[in-house]
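Researcher: Please translate sequence to structure tokens.
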Amino acid sequence: MAEEHHISNFDPGAFFTLHDFDSSLSWSADEIRRMYGLDDESTKNVDEGKKAEAVRKTLENFDRDHDGMIERDEWLQGWRAGKRLEDFGLGPGHHGDDEYEYEIHHFEKFHDENTREEDLTHPEDIEHFRKHDEMEAAAERQEKLDSMPIVEQNIPQKFRRY
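Model: Translation complete:
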């Protein structure tokens, strides 16, 4: 985590704030899911029960008043008592877009600025560039449709003349 966030000394208060996505001074189940990356496309084949278990265990570990939220004070008390977030081995994380996720979770660990395109042969690299190819193809299809004065596929069947 420290290398992922490019920090050398961990500050539990700053960590909490960084992951308090709605700035409510508490983590909801949805924020825990987001923090662990449980709604990411890469976890679509992970059993929903496993994801729920990760959220449940996290709440069990830090939610002292059992209200289904981890307040900042609960997090800090737990941290001082030696509690830590468990690594459930699920999801890529929470950093937002796919580019950034790929960059910090894969490229920075296995490649560097001297890496040539032909050296990007890991399954993660291949998947990353496959997504780029799909996005490019979709953009080209959309551009073609946008240039058409009438897109017949958009006309409901009952209004078409043959």
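Researcher: Any highlights?
Model: Helices lie at 12-19, 29-36, 48-62, 72-80, 98-110, 123-146.
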